[in-house]
Amino acid sequence: MNLAAYGHSANYIAAPFNIFLNVSISDQGELGILPPRSKAGDFIELQAEMDLIVGITACSAGACNNYHCTSIDVEIYTDDNPLQSVENGTPADC
Asked: How many DSSP H helices and E strands does the chain contain?
């Protein structure tokens, strides 16, 4: 996606919203990535109340995806079209 059309450079990344990532925080404040608690087929449904630019990824780094690179499905619904599009793919580096 060309983010320049939206006023952002290609390497602009806002703070991530990690839905299924299992992160521990030690007493010393150190972060640890643990195997996921989610299972295949788990999902979350979100409703946008304003226009959005969204980037989505299935993390393949170490324990965060239980050492296994997987595909991700995204369904986008609109008021005009109950199912506008379905994206299903495997990350290129898997």
From this structure: 0, 4
pTM above 0.70, yes or no: no
Domain ranges of the chain: 1-94
Q: How far, in Å, CA of 25 to CA of 37, rounded?
A: 16
38 Cβ contact partners less than 8 Å away, ≥ 6 residues apart? 20
Per-residue model confidence as pLDDT tens digits over 28-82:
999 888 888 888 788 888 888 888 877 777 665 666 666 777 777 777 777 776 6
With tokens 């450079």, the residue in question is 9
Question: How many CB atoms are closer than 10 A to CB 37?
Answer: 9
Bridge partners of 87, per DSSP, are 74
DSSP annotation of 19: S
